[in-house]
Amino acid sequence: MTPGIYTAATTMTARAKAHELIAQNLASASTNGYRRLEPHFKGFGPGEYQSDSDAAPATAGGVQLLQPVWNHAHGMLKETGRDLDFAIRGEGFFVLNGPTGRMFTRDGHFMRDKDGRLVSTSGDPVMGKRGAIILPNGEVSVKDDGSIYVDGKQVGELLVQAPSDPQKLESAGGGLFRLLEEASVRPVKETQISNGKLEMSNVEIPIEMVAMIENSRMYEAAQRALQMTDANIGTTIQNLTT
Amino acid sequence: MMRSLWASATGMRAQQLNVDVIANNLANVNTTGFKRSQALFQDLLYERMRTPGASSGSGANIPTGIQVGLGTHLVSVSKIFTPGKPQQTGNELDIWIEGDGFFKVVKPDGTEAYTSDGAFRLNVDGQVVNADGYRLDGVDTISVEATSVSISPDGTVSETVNGTTSDKGQIKLFRFLNPAGLLSEGSNLYLPSSASGDAQEGTAGENGFGSLRQGYLEMSNVEVVTEMVNLIVAQRAYEVNTKAIQASDEMLQQANNLRR
C-alpha cells in the first residue's frame, strides 16, 4: 500500500516545482525582455523515475516535471522615446560581454559609461560586430540592420545572435541568458532593430494565473490522495493491532 | 484538465488585445487622417467527441453530435477606411481628399509610402513635404518668391510670383483593391502589401477618386462614443471570463473536497 503515498508525493513535488516557475513568470511580468518558462509534466511507470538528486522513491509510478521550456514569443514593444533603448523585432538577442562570459538579452535598455561605451544596466559592454561600441555625445539613431549612427555618422553595428537551439539557454536573472556549454550561436536573418522602444516581458498575467489555479488544484488533489492512502494505512494498522 | 479554465484564459487574452486596439483608437482621436482599427475574433478548434451525422449503434444518424470549443483567438486587426470629418485650417498646404484616395510620399531613400494625412508644408528647398519631411509625389519645387500656392480640386498645383501664375505639377491620388490589407507603418503612413494589391494611380475627382480641397484637413475617423461602447463591451467580456475561471476553480475545489 505504501507506493500510493509516493505516487501522490511525486505529483505534489512536481506541482510544487511548477508553482515556482509560474511564480517566477508572474514576478517577471514587468521585466523587460523576460521570456516565460513553461512547465511540462511527464507521467512515469514503475522504475522509470529519473532523478538527479532525490533518492528514487519506491513508487508504482507518478508524475515528474521535465526541463522547463523557454517560450520565445515576442513581448510587446513599449515606446519610451529614449535614444539608448533598443528593441529587436524578429529572432536573436543582444550580446553582452559580461564578467563571466557572453550573455544574451532582449532587454535593450542601455546607457553610456564614463568612457562613452554602450553598456547594459549592470555595466557590461554591449558587443558590436567589431567589439565594444563607443558613442560620442549626440543624437543616436539605429538602422534596421543594427548599425548605429551618432548625429548621422556611423559609429558601430550592434551584434545580434541567436543560439542554434533556443532551448539551450539558462537564465542569468533579470532577462539575461547564458548559453549552455554544448550550444553554439548563429547570425540572425530578417531581424529589425530600432531605438526609442523596449521589448516588455512576454508573460501574460491571466495565462499565468490560470496556470497557477490549475496547478494548485492538482496539488490539492494529490494531497487528498495522499491523505486518503495514509488514512487507509492507519485503519489497517488499528484493525490489526486491536 | 478542465477546458473551461483555458478557454476562459483565451477569452481574457482576446479581450485584452481588443482593449489594446480600442485604446490605440482613442489615443489617436485627434490624429490627422487616422483610421480606426477593429479587432476581429474567431473561435478556436473544436474537440469533436461525437461527430454529427455519424451513425449510432442502431443505425440511425446522429443529428447534432458533441463538439466542445476550446476558446477564441484574434484573427485580424484591420483599418476601417471610412472618411473622417474635415476641419478648416486655412493653411494653404493642408489638403483634404473629399472621398476615396491616398497621397503618395517619397522618402529620402527613394521608397514610397501612402497616406491620407494631408498636412503638408514647405521645406527649405521649396519642396512640399509632410510632417516627417517626406516629399509629396508629383509636385515640383515651389519658388522662394511665391506669394501663394493654390491647389485645384483635380490636384493641379500652381504658384503665384509677382502676380503671374505658373503650373507646378499635379498631385496624383492612389487607391488599393483592399485597403484593409495595407501595412500600417506608423506616422500616418501605409505601405502596400501582397494583400492590399498594388497602388492604382488616378486623378482627383475622376473615376471615383475624391477631389481635393485646399485649406482643410481630414480628422481622425475615431468616434469617441463608439469606442467607449466598445470599451465597455470588451471590459465586461473580460470580466465574465474571469467569472468563468473562478467558477471552474471552485468546481475543482469542490471535487477535491468530495471526501474530507
Write structural notes for this entry.
The complex is a heterodimer of chains A (242) and B (260). By secondary structure, chain A is α+β, with helices and mostly antiparallel strands. Chain A has helices spanning 3-27, 205-241; strands spanning 37-38, 41-44, 62-65, 69-70, 77-79, 85-89, 93-98, 101-105, 108-109, 111-112, 118-119, 127-128, 131-132, 140-142, 147-150, 153-157, 160-163, 169-173, 176-179, 185-187, 192-195, 197-199. Chain A has a 6-stranded antiparallel beta sheet with strand order 18-19-8-7-17-20, with no helix packed on it. In chain A, strand 12 (127-128) and strand 13 form a beta hairpin. In chain B, strand 16 and strand 17 form a beta hairpin. In chain B, the strands form 8 sheets. In chain B, strands 11-7-8-17-16 form a 5-stranded antiparallel beta sheet, with no helix packed on it. Chain B has a 3-stranded antiparallel beta sheet with strand order 12-13-14, with no helix packed on it. Chain B has 2 domains: 3-50 and 62-81 and 222-256, no CATH class; 86-218, no CATH class. Chain B has helices at 3-27, 224-256; strands at 37-43, 46-50, 66-69, 72-79, 86-88, 95-98, 103-106, 112-115, 121-122, 128-129, 135-136, 148-151, 156-161, 164-170, 172-175, 183-186, 189-191, 200-203, 211-214, 216-218. At the A-B interface, helix 2 of A face helix 1 and helix 2 of B.
Task: Give a summary of the structure in a few sentences.
The complex is a heterodimer of chains A (about 240) and B (about 260). Chain A has helices at about 5-25, 205-240, and strands spanning about 35-40, 40-45, 60-65, 70, 75-80, 85-90, 95-100, 100-105, 110, 110, 120, 125-130, 130, 140, 145-150, 155, 160-165, 170-175, 175-180, 185, 190-195, 195-200.
